[in-house]
Specification:
The protein is 19% helix and 33% strand. The chain has 81 residues and is α+β, with helices and mostly antiparallel strands. The protein has a domain of 56 residues. Strands 1-2-3 form a three-stranded mixed beta sheet, with helices on one face. Helix 1 links the parallel strand 2 and strand 3. The longest helix is centred in the middle third of the chain and has 15 residues.
């Protein structure tokens, strides 16, 4: 289960996750929040808070976990391009 935390500065999306994340968490909660945050075309920062007993991610409809559209995932190197 995930929910969006409020009260963040402009350009920051903060997400709290607990239990097992599902494709519905992505499509019904995370994707709309990211779409709203990027509507003006600006860059955003994402803060993920894993609380309690995080149990992982359920496989998506294709049997794989989801990836962000248009990419292979986070760069993980902290660089800005």
């Amino acid at each position: 289960m995930i929910h969006i935390l409020t009260g963040m500065p402009a350009g920051v999306v903060s997400v709290e996750a607990a239990g097992k994340l599902t494709s519905a968490d992505y499509s019904e909660v995370l994707a709309p929040a990211l779409a709203a945050a990027t509507r003006d075309g600006g860059r955003i920062r994402i803060v993920l808070c894993f609380t309690g007993e995080f149990a992982g991610m359920a496989a998506g409809r294709s049997g794989r976990t989801s990836r962000p559209a248009g990419g292979t995932g986070a760069r993980g190197n902290g660089s800005r391009s």
